[in-house]
Specification:
- With 341 residues, this protein is mainly α.
- It has four domains: 1-63, 434 Repressor (Amino-terminal Domain); 80-154, no CATH class; 159-245, Serine Threonine Protein Phosphatase 5, Tetratricopeptide repeat (Alpha Horseshoe); 273-341, Up-down Bundle (Methane Monooxygenase Hydroxylase, Chain G, domain 1), CATH 1.20.58.
- The chain is built from 19 helices and no strands.
- Helix 6 (66-79) packs parallel to helix 8 (102-137).
- The N and C termini lie far apart (48 Å).
Length: 341
C-alpha cells in the first residue's frame, strides 16, 4: 500500500479530517493533503509522532515497494517547479540505488528522463522570461530574439537544422526490433510529417493500421492527407473518427487537436470539455486548461477564467491538491487574464 493511502486509510478509520490530523501533528492541512496525494513525505522527525498517533509501527506505516517509491518520485516531479540541485542528487541516488532488475532499471531510467526533461522545461520558461525582459529594454536585441525562440519552442532557422533525422533513425531502429510498438510508430509518423517526408509517413501509417486497433490510425490518415493537401480524404478520416469514437476520451482529444489546427475553435473546446466529463475520477485537468487557452484566443476571457477555476476545483476536490506549482500556475493564468479584462 502507498504511504499516502495508508495515512488516509488510518485517518478515515479514526473519522478525522485532514485539518484535525494536521492540528494533532502540528502541521498544515496542505501538508497532510500532499502526503495523501503522494506528492511529499512527512518530515523524518514526524514519523514517530505519526506512528504513535495511529498506534502502528514506523516500519508498518512507511514500508514501500519500489513501485510505490517510483510513483512518489513521479508525483514529486509533476508538482514541482525548478527542483533544487540537492534534491535532484537525492532523486538520482534513490533511482540508482533501488534499481536492480531489468524492469526496475527501465522504470528508473524513464523517471530520470522525466526529471531531466522537467528541469529543462522549467529552465526554458525562465529563459523565455529573461529574453522577454531583454526585449523590453532593447527591442532589436537579436540574441534575445534567438533565445526567446529557442526557449519558447519557436520554428528553427533552416529545414536541415530543424529536422528530426536522428530521432527518426532511432525510431526506425526501435521498430525494426519491435514492429508492434504502436507508440513508437505514431511518434515516427509525427516526426516524418514534421520533416515533410510525407510518403514515408504514409507507409508507416499503413503499418500502424495493421498493429493498432484503436482510433489512432484514423488520426494519422487525416494528418497524412492534410500534409498532401488532400482535403477530401482528410475530412473523410475525420468524419469516421468522430462518428465511431464519439465516446472515446483519447479520440475526443485527438479530434480537438485536429479542429484546433483547422481553426474550428468552438468544436475543439467542446471536445476537450466532453473528454474531461467522460474521464473517470480523479479527472485530468489538462483538457480543461487547454479549452481555457482556446477560449482566450477567441477573446472569451470570462469563459477562459471559468474553465481555469474549474481546473482548480478538480485539483482540490478530486486530487486533494491545494498548493504547489500546478495550483500556482493556474492562479497566475487567472490573474493574467483578469488583468486584461
Amino acid at each position: 500500500m502507498k504511504v499516502g493511502n495508508r495515512i488516509k486509510e488510518l485517518r478515515n478509520k479514526r473519522g478525522l479530517t485532514q485539518e484535525a490530523l494536521a492540528a494533532a501533528l502540528g502541521v498544515t492541512p496542505q501538508s497532510v493533503s500532499k502526503w495523501e496525494c503522494e506528492v511529499n513525505f512527512p518530515d523524518v522527525s514526524l514519523l514517530p509522532d505519526i506512528a504513535v498517533f495511529f498506534g502502528v509501527s514506523i516500519d508498518s506505516l512507511f514500508s514501500m515497494t519500489r513501485a510505490d517509491e517510483f510513483e512518489r518520485i513521479g508525483n514529486r516531479i509533476n508538482e514541482a517547479g525548478i527542483i533544487s540541485d540537492d534534491e535532484v542528487k537525492q532523486i538520482e541516488a534513490m533511482l540508482t540505488e533501488q534499481s536492480d532488475g531489468r524492469e526496475d532499471r527501465a522504470a528508473a531510467e524513464a523517471l530520470l528522463a522525466k526529471l531531466y526533461n522537467h528541469q529543462a522545461s522549467e529552465y526554458r520558461k525562465k529563459a523565455a522570461l529573461c529574453a522577454k525582459g531583454a526585449l523590453e529594454i532593447s527591442e532589436s536585441d537579436t540574441l534575445a530574439l534567438k533565445e526567446l525562440s529557442r526557449s519558447s519552442g519557436g520554428a528553427p532557422h533552416g529545414v536541415i537544422d530543424g529536422s528530426h533525422r536522428e530521432l527518426i533513425a532511432y525510431l526506425k531502429g526501435l521498430l525494426a526490433r519491435d514492429p508492434e510498438n504502436t507508440d513508437a510508430a505514431a511518434m515516427l509518423i509525427d516526426n516524418l510529417i514534421a520533416d515533410t517526408r510525407v510518403d514515408e509517413a504514409a507507409m508507416w501509417c499503413d503499418h500502424l493500421e495493421k498493429t493498432d486497433d484503436s482510433y489512432r490510425p484514423l488520426v494519422y490518415k487525416y494528418s497524412v492527407a492534410e500534409a498532401r493537401g488532400d482535403g477530401e480524404k482528410a475530412l473523410a478520416a475525420l468524419a469516421v473518427l468522430t462518428a465511431v469514437y464519439s465516446a472515446d476520451v483519447g479520440a475526443l482529444v485527438a479530434a480537438a487537436d485536429i479542429y484546433f489546427r483547422r481553426g474550428e475553435y468552438e468544436k475543439a473546446i467542446g471536445n476537450l470539455l466532453k473528454a474531461t466529463e467522460l474521464s473517470p475520477a480523479p479527472k485530468p485537468v489538462e483538457y480543461t486548461v487547454s479549452a481555457a487557452h482556446i477560449a482566450e484566443l477567441l477573446g472569451n476571457l470570462d469563459d477562459s477564467v471559468v474553465m481555469l477555476r474549474e481546473a482548480l476545483r478538480i485539483l482540490k476536490e478530486e486530487w486533494g491538491i491545494v498548493t504547489g506549482e500546478r495550483v500556482d500556475a493556474l492562479r497566475r493564468e487567472i490573474k493574467r487574464i483578469t488583468t486584461q479584462e
